[in-house]
User: Fold Transcriptional regulator from Dactylosporangium matsuzakiense.
Amino acid sequence: MNRAQLADFLRTRREALQPEDVGLPRGPRRRTGGLRREEVAALCGISADYYGRIEQQRGPRPSEQMIAALARGLRLGLDERDHLFRLAGHLAPERALRAEHVAPGLMRIMDRLADTPAQVMTALGETLVQTRPAQALLGDETRFTGPERACVYRWFTRPESRRLYPEEDHGYHGRVFTAQLRDAYTREGPTGRAAAIVTALEAVSSEFVTLWAAHDVGLGYSDRKRIQHPEAGVLQLYCQTLVDPANAHVLLVFTAAPGSESAERLELLSVVGQVRSDV
Assistant:
């Protein structure tokens, strides 16, 4: 680990970012050109004290998970991300596994959707980044680890995950999740992560085994989706998608028809989510 170079690299990238680049207000009292340390820490989901110690060349070596969070928060490109891993004494992730890294351009779009439910997901249904309104609507889907990161795995192993949708929609969601997993399995082959999820699900879910044997392909969602929230009830939402083909990522944006009851509930949820995050 090269502490001096790591600290210097983080500082230069922090100072190169402007508040507008990450969806933050500049404010009248800002004296420095780049972002403050506490702002970068918030973007990375870590404490300001922890980030400050890294820039001050103190503390333990950051983990691979922490370096990935720093790369995402600082909107680094793939070459910059790899360099950051090496400075921290880790092997750079294989480019074949680049699905964990959200492209800077996609992150900039997310920054401008800060007041809208939106999230970035991998081809396996792993949620990488969520806006606060998305967490208020869907829950924190970035907290899971291992195979549970994939929504299809949670669907067949965690009954509480189905509460997000009305019961009459469960059959269709199960088929779509399975078809999407099959698409990833076909693209990655028998040694990919999708294959590992298939094997794990076959061992624990007879429902999955039945759906997998049906060989459904090409199933997908329309632009309308019903979300069942424990406090707001059932919301009729539009789900628009933006695809990043280079990383096989999908940006999902949830909206409601203007003036509708769902729009009012969605706005209320966004406000409640903001208040809770500030507590």
Notes: The longest helix spans residues 170-188. The first strand starts at residue 118 and ends at 121. The chain has two domains: 3-93, 106-278.
